[in-house]
Amino acid sequence: MLDDLSKQVAQVMTQRRLTLATAESCTGGWVAKQLTDIAGSSAWFLGGYVSYSNQAKQTMLGVSARTLEECGAVSEAVVCEMAEGARGRLDADIAVAISGVAGPAGGSDEKPVGTVWLAWAVRDKPGVSCLSFFDGDRAAVREQAVVQALEGVLAYLPE
């Protein structure tokens, strides 16, 4: 499924002459890997950031220290800043960002394992974000997040 979805993204990006960037935390670059496994992806995939730590989110993507402190790394505000940071820094037409609790540890009552925020920043359009709760072990949570990220790219692409 992931390979087919990645190929679909590649086809649409190529046909529409659009560019894409990623900002990943809990998925550790999996979205970027899926996309760069496709020959010719350099024509539309500009690059990706793996910003696993809060410091990396700030340094690489311009996420506000205040936002991180007030909302936490796994939050709508942070993932929106990540997406916009990646889009703006690489001048992409669309960027996707992911931050979540993949487990097996790190969850809390407020943000249990499987909690994942995703955001898509689109040039000249309002951003879109969503909160998901995925089941399964670490690998399953991460894979489901990658699928949702790619599905969102297809859903929110500029015309």
Polypeptide structure, described:
It is a single chain. The chain has 159 residues and is α/β, with parallel strands linked by helices. It is globular, with a radius of gyration of 14 Å. It contains six helices and five strands, in the order H-E-H-E-H-H-H-E-E-E-H. It has a five-stranded mixed sheet, sandwiched between helices. The model has no long low-confidence stretch (mean pLDDT 97). The protein starts with a helix and ends with a helix.
In brief:
The chain has 159 residues and is an alpha/beta fold.
Secondary-structure content class: alpha/beta
Strand content: 15-25%
Number of strands: 5
Low-confidence stretches: none
Q: Enumerate the strands of the largest sheet in spatial order, edge to edge or round the barrel.
A: 2-1-3-4-5
Share of residues in helices: 40-55%
Number of helices: 6
End-to-end Cα distance, whole Å, is 25 Å
Give me the Rg, rounded.
14 Å
Shape: globular
Following the backbone from N to C, one meets helices and strands in this order, namely: HEHEHHHEEEH
Largest sheet: 5 strands, mixed
User: Overall mean pLDDT score?
Assistant: 97
